[in-house]
Amino acid sequence: MNESHADESDFVGRRHELAEIRRLLARSRLLTLTGAGGVGKSRLARRAAGTLSPGYPDGVQVIELAGLEDDDLLESTVASALGLRSAQRPIGAALLDYLAEKRMLLVLDNCEHLLSACAALIDRILRHTLRLRVLATSRQTIGVYGEQLLRVPSLAVPAPDEPPRKIARREAVRLFSDRAATVRPGFTVNASNAPTIARISGRLDGIPLAIELAAARLRTTPIDQLLRELDDRFTTLTGGSTTALPRHQTLRATMDWSHDLCSPAEQHLWARLATFPGGVDLETAEEICAGNGIAHDEIFELIAGLVDKSVLTPQQVGSGTRYRMLESIRAYGREHLTPPEEATLRHAYCAHYRRLADANRIDRIAPDQVCRYWLLHTEIANLRVALDSCFTWTHDPGAGLDIASSMWSYWVITGTLTEGRHWLDRGLALTAKGDPVRFTALWTNALLAIYQGDAVGARTWIAECRALAKQSGDESSLALAQQISGVAACSAGDPKKGYALLEEARNRHRALGDVDGLGLNLYLASVYCSATAPHEAAVLGEELITLCNERNAPLFRAYAQFGVAIAAWIQGDWRHTEAMMRQVAIPWTVINDRWGLVQFLEVMGWTACVRGDHLRAARLLGAADSLWQAVHASPMVVRYSEESHRRCVERTRRMLGGRAYADAFRSGARLGLDHAIAFALEDEPAVAAMAF
Q1: What share of the chain is helix, strand, coil (3-state, %, to 5)?
Q2: Quick one: CA torsion of 225, 231, 234, 235, rounded to 10 degrees?
Q3: How much is the pLDDT for 86?
Q4: Global pTM?
Q5: Which residues of 271-284 are buried (b: 16+ CB within 10 A; e: fewer)?
Q6: What is the pLDDT of residue 10?
Q7: Which residues pair with 323 in a beta bridge?
């Protein structure tokens, strides 16, 4: 089982440690669980998070850092996990503002490889908040002032001469018995095997990962032979002494033992699969890891062998299976990857994920948009490795630019625009100006900059983008360059010029038969045109809906419907607006699109006000306000919503009275996202609409 994906259903013991975590967090704002790899820090932290959640009104958020290898992405990763969308200011500032008044527990799991960055971020968070607490796991102390430490010990082991019933109750034995039963159904601790199990758990110093690796051997090895193998291994390592290994070496010795029990091909595959922090499916393993001594048709059997030895853990993801490693096992495997082997693997890795990113672009009008999103989401840790490999290992920045550009819609939907720009900036810095490989990266980076309100950055990229398009003379490139220029003009307050540029680009897309380019243009034009030309916006939105219906593209359709809904609202047809918003909530909820969902709650508050249900409107405004803060935005800075929001607040407060409005608003803010969406979707009795 992966430490980063521990299943709480198989949690064993740790009552004392859980009580200590509760006690120490009551008096300290930073508690770090330390200890050797494999001792169970992650599993303990996640169990504690579940038991402590009722004590934190603003929730408990567990953020996994094991798959993150770039210090520069720490802040955006934490912000994304909290649901924040990148804003104009640095994401760190938005993060601090969001957390400032929160009464929550932030769990940062696996900090040791990002120690300096984690220390700096935790220090800033604690200095800018009053009631937030941090629970971290790390093999080393974080080093922040006020940090409390709890060293996570090994599990309690019995003495071999204890009575069988007492042996069976010891934590280390309970874990061994639990894992043994998964490979040998019906396995139990009894009078005949209890002394042997006691010796095994003692020999392994009660280290959970070492116990799990040993228990996996029972699939093919009798328990008495298992003890003999461990005795032989450890006696050799201690030079024949009866003294046990130092505890910090026990896990290493156990992994060496497990490694030696693998065939040479299994050992090589272990090392190669250790490069996948996000786990891997069979097809990907076959494509990337075959060769250099491992035949393609061997991969399945080798994976099965590593699963049998508990080196890999299978997990059901959707309709398929992914294979993951404990972080300690993955680190051990990487040590056994030779430089030539790693060089070959990195090239195959980059090529595979370049194809995967291109084949799963979310900005395509296709029926499997949701599946594409979830695949990218599942593979994001591996995609980060691929991006870093392109820029650092394989020296192929063009491949990295292709990956980062293909994922631009993913960066938007997940609110990780800062990360997207990070990768695009890295690639653009490594390629020469005027190189055609830069073109797509230029317009996508400009679009992300516009969404963040960075007009200066956007202009820089757009100028080069237009120059490259003109130089190439390619109609598709010219259309995309005009398109991004039109968006920039609209954002700069010149909708007339912007709409003209978007229209020119749209005509080029039509002439080329470029359906995907046309779809993106229709969406951008409808959104940026809605405030000043709602009729034209509605026409463009309806055209996009038709196109999406023909191709059954659910995410594109949701945004097209949103544009039509806003156009209808501005034209006074609130019933049509509400009907459309009810439809868009479904796909946005499926992928947790918070940028879409906050606008859903906001607009549903407007329609409730028009209907005359002011109590409901106030609650929805409160729910929306909570999410606006989470995405670090405001309805008062969004062109189409500013006036409607202000009027809704004024009317609702006037009709309810200041105190009742404030109570309803606070009630909505406390709903939480899931309950707020359910509340907004509840059917309401017909109420006479009021002038608005």
Answers
A1: 65, 5, 25
A2: -140
A3: 53
A4: 0.86
A5: bbbbbbbbbbeeeb
A6: 61
A7: 280, 314
CB 352 within 8 Å of CB 403: no
User: Which segments of 115-163 does DSSP mark as H helices, in order?
Assistant: 115-128
pLDDT score for 688? 45
How far apart CA 177 and CA 186 sit, in angstroms, is 10
The two structure tokens encoding residue 232: 């032989």
Q: Which amino acid is at 546?
A: T
Structure tokens at 439: 């073109």
Residue 690's pLDDT band, with cuts at 50, 70 and 90, is very low
- pLDDT tens digits, 222-270: 999 999 988 887 765 555 444 455 555 788 888 898 999 999 999 999 9
User: What is the per-residue pLDDT for 3?
Assistant: 40
Cα-to-chain-centroid distance, residue 158: 41
Distance between CA 212 and CA 232 in Å, rounded? 19
Write out the two tokens for 53. Answer: 């959640």
pLDDT computed for residue 583 by the predictor: 93
Amino acid identity of 244?
A
Residues 321 and 512: their CA atoms lie apart, in Å, by 41
The full DSSP string for 10-79 is G----HHHHHHHHHHHHH-SEEEEE--TTS-HHHHHHHHHHHHGGG-TT-EEEEE-TT---GGGHHHHHH
The residue count of the chain comes to 692
- Cα 198 to the center of its chain, rounded Å: 41
pLDDT, residue 328, reads 87
DSSP 281: E
Query: Beta strands 133-137 and 30-34: pairing type?
Result: parallel
Least confident piece of the model among 208-217, 295-304, 391-400, 522-531: 522-531
Please give the full DSSP string across 304-336, using - where no structure is assigned: HHHHHTTSSEEEEETTEEEEE--HHHHHHHHHT
Look up residue 376 and give its two tokens.
């990218």
Residue 122 phi/psi, 5-degree rounding, is -60, -40
Q: How confident is the model at residue 85 (pLDDT cuts 50, 70, 90)?
A: low
Q: Which two tokens stand for residue 435?
A: 């190189």
Burial class (CB in 10 A: 0-12, 13-18, 19+), 27: exposed
Residue 561, pLDDT > 90, answer yes
Which pLDDT score, from 0 to 100, does residue 639 have?
60
277-306 mean pLDDT = 95
- Contact, 396 vs 390, CB < 8 A? yes
Q: Report the amino acid identity of residue 380.
A: I
pLDDT > 90: what percent of the chain? 66
State the average pLDDT for the chain. Answer: 89
| Vertex 402: Cα angle to 397 and 407 (nearest 5) | 130
Task: Please state, as a whole number, how many other Cβ atoms lie within 10 Å of the Cβ of residue 514.
Answer: 17
Residue 153, classed as helix, strand or coil, is coil
Other CB atoms within 10 A of residue 409 CB: 22
pLDDT tens per residue, range 563-590? 899 999 989 999 999 999 999 999 999 8
Find the helix packing angle between 475-491 and 515-529, rounded to 10°: 10
Angle at 584 between CA 583 and CA 590, to 5 degrees: 110
Exposed/middle/buried for 260, CB within 10 Å: 0-12, 13-18, 19+?
Answer: exposed
Q: By the 8 A CB rule, do 498 and 490 touch?
A: yes
